[in-house]
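Hi everyone, sorry if this is the wrong subforum. Our group has a chain we'd like a structural model of before ordering constructs, and none of us has done structure prediction before. Sequence below.
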Amino acid sequence: MRSLTSLLIAVVLCSSPSFAQTAEVKKYLNITITLYENLEYEKALKQLKNARTKAKGPDDEAKINLLEGIVLADMGKEEKALTAFKSAFSVDLEAKLPVEVSPKVQAVADKARANVRKMLAPQLEAEAKAAEEARLAEEKRKADEEAAKQAELKRQQEEAAKNQPPPLVVKPVDPPPPSGPSVRALSLIPGVIGLASAGVATGLLVSASGKYTALNNGTAPPEQAIAYRDTGKTDATLGYVFTGVAAAGIGAAVIMFAVGGEKPPPATVSAVPLQGGGMVSATFDFDLGGAR
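Answer:
Right subforum, don't worry. Here is the predicted structure as tokens:
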């Protein structure tokens, strides 16, 4: 049962991406692990020797050397085990042992790994430095590209602004002065009519009031009573009519005088040409008859 478990472990570990192995080498390595678990060290070394004849590259050699180091360390041949382990760790410094081993064997493997790490330290440091320099160079390249892109965009914007024509402002043309009288001057006409109508209305209403009083007091001559009545009604009616005319005339005069001042300045128009079109704006000043 122990041998079967070790064999399954070996199959799984030998398929690890740390070492890519050929099918024939994997077969010999699995047999080697089984023999090692059964403490048949010499037979295990013979299987490793057969496996080495089928090795196709450094990955196969490294896996063979790893198992060889385990077997030799368990046999007490530490120097040979160190050599085998160093050969394996030179291919993959972080390779794991494919089987569970005793502390003695683990100590030999750790010693070999430490020696290889020390030996490869300058190379590993140089590789790390080169990788860091490559990373920094790539970042600088990207930053330079972005800066050049932004500079080109700014240049294009400045060029577009330079070629943009200035805003076009159309100055208003003053209209010719009016040829006739102003509205304020004309406001005298309805004003005079209103005042005259007010005077006529007052006279008519006073006359009608006098005739009405005479009829009520009995002071009117009897033979003229009917005439007093009829003419009084006519005077009253005409008085009310002229009162309305007076109100309309005076009201029209006041409105004409209020809104008939100086003309407001004409509208100001400005045009701004743009790429693909343009923009036009206009300003108007309305006079609603405020304080003068």
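For your construct planning: The domain at 2-121 is CATH 1.25.40 (Serine Threonine Protein Phosphatase 5, Tetratricopeptide repeat). The first strand starts at residue 168 and ends at 170.
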